[in-house]
Specification:
This protein is α+β, with helices and mostly antiparallel strands and about 400 residues long. It folds into three domains: about 90 residues, no CATH class; about 140 residues, no CATH class; about 100 residues, no CATH class. Helix content is about 30%, strand content about 20%. It contains 13 helices and eleven strands. Strands 1, 2, 3, 4, 5, 6, 7, 8, 9, 10 and 11 form an eleven-stranded mixed β-sheet that branches. A hairpin with a 5-residue loop joins strand 1 and strand 2. Helix 8 packs parallel to helix 9. The longest helix has 18 residues. The protein is globular, with a radius of gyration of 26 Å.
Length: about 400
């Protein structure tokens, strides 16, 4: 019963699908892209040679991928099912007439080549980096001498995929898995699966702008992907008339070996990373430093552990005296009770040691400043938290290398 007699409820047997909740956000973004001239730019500067293109252009498929990303639908099948009643209106937002079928999208992504992918990446850098920002508003941190740095976080995230077990019989043909082109065996961490794909991302910490993303099968080519990320960071800074020396790059232990650190120094950026090995602990200079009282004592906010910090000074990256020098910081805390495994660091007697390397100047950053700066990577992990949610592999757009990266 409806107590208010002024209200009438009319029903109909005809289906009236509700507008998807994400449709409004797509409308806002489409108008923004059109106003900035990006839609026209995408239409004329992103080209792909195909044997049979039909009535569609790359822009038709790019707007589908934009819509899929905004929608948050679990799979492409779910996205197209939800979009179907409003396909004409969706494409009209971007000045296009026809909604491609999802099989057409799949065929397009199979044909995407490296030039098409890089053309889109270049446009992304040209238009998204300076959008709405100025040299003053992009943020930064200042050291104790008043020098300004823009902090960038670089890290590799992994998506594991599960594969069905198949019978092993020499009489059977070799198995062909659709994930072979985008995945390979690798370190899956805490995720469940048999194969993995790695994506290296770079984030401007202050504005939360994505600067670059590069992907590869298995564990990926972390040195090559880091090199491309450093080029993207230099491009970003150039938009604001800043030099690479204004960049401060934070990285985890994957990048804490001599080859990568030399690569970072060659790029001309400042950086801080966790050491990948602990051989430097045997260096006479560090052994002498550890016999003296610590330079500082700090407490980790997330764990409550008390750390002692030692400034190990500047050491050569390897045994070659001509090799570049890095500043070494040693952090140690009390070893866990007997029987508990040490997951991070190296246990020596009653202490667990961790090594941090950086090129930050001593007059600008005390040991606790550099340590706090590295611990701040936790904010980057929060931004990447969505990557830790296990999702169906169909959430991936394509089973081809360039198509998936696009």
């Amino acid at each position: 019963m409806i107590p208010n007699q002024c209200i009438e409820v009319q029903t109909s047997p005809l289906e009236r699908p509700s507008v998807p909740p994400w449709f409004a956000e797509v409308a806002i973004l489409s108008q923004h892209l059109a106003t900035k001239g990006l839609l026209e730019t995408f239409t004329h500067q992103i080209r792909l040679v195909r044997g049979h293109f039909g009535t569609y252009e790359p822009i038709d498929f790019l707007v589908l991928l934009i819509g899929y990303a905004i929608s948050g639908e679990r799979t492409l099948a779910d996205f197209f099912e939800r979009l179907a009643p409003f396909g004409a209106a969706f494409m009209a937002l971007f000045g296009r007439a026809n909604l491609p079928h999802r099989s057409s999208l799949s065929r397009f992504l199979v044909d995407v080549d490296r030039p098409c992918l890089e053309a889109f990446r270049t446009l992304f850098e040209q238009f998204s980096f300076p959008e709405g920002w100025t040299k003053d508003s992009i943020g930064g941190i200042w050291d104790r001498q008043g020098r300004r740095y823009i902090v960038f976080d670089v890290d590799a995230t992994r998506q594991a995929a599960r594969q069905r077990s198949l019978p092993c019989d020499p009489t059977l043909p070799l198995a062909k898995r659709r994930l072979d082109a985008v995945c390979a065996p690798g370190d899956i961490g805490r995720k469940r699966g048999e194969v993995v794909r790695t994506r290296t991302t770079a984030l401007q910490m202050h504005t939360r702008q994505w600067v670059s993303t590069y992907a590869g099968k298995g564990n990926g080519d972390y040195q090559g992907e880091l090199a491309r990320a450093l080029l993207a960071i230099a491009t970003y800074l150039k938009h604001f008339a800043l030099t690479p020396q204004a960049a401060l790059v934070r990285l985890d232990g994957q990048y804490g070996d001599a080859v990568v650190m030399a690569q970072l120094m060659e790029a001309g950026v400042y950086w801080v990373t966790r050491g990948r090995t602990y051989r430097m602990l045997e260096h006479p200079q560090l052994r002498r430093v550890l016999t003296h009282p610590p330079s500082a004592r700090v407490t980790a906010l997330n764990t409550g552990k008390a750390f002692e910090l030692f400034d190990g000074g500047w050491l050569h990256l390897d045994q070659d005296e001509g090799a570049p020098k890095v500043r070494v910081i040693v952090a140690r805390h009390a070893a866990p009770p007997s029987g508990k495994k040490v997951t991070v660091g190296k246990q020596v007697g009653e202490w667990v040691y961790e090594l941090f390397m950086t090129t930050l100047p001593v007059d600008g950053f005390l040991v606790e400043d550099a340590w706090d700066l590295y611990q701040g990577r936790g904010a980057f992990e929060a931004v990447l938290s969505d990557e830790d949610v296990e999702i169906d592999p169909d959430r991936w757009c394509s089973y081809t290398e360039c198509g998936q990266e696009l």
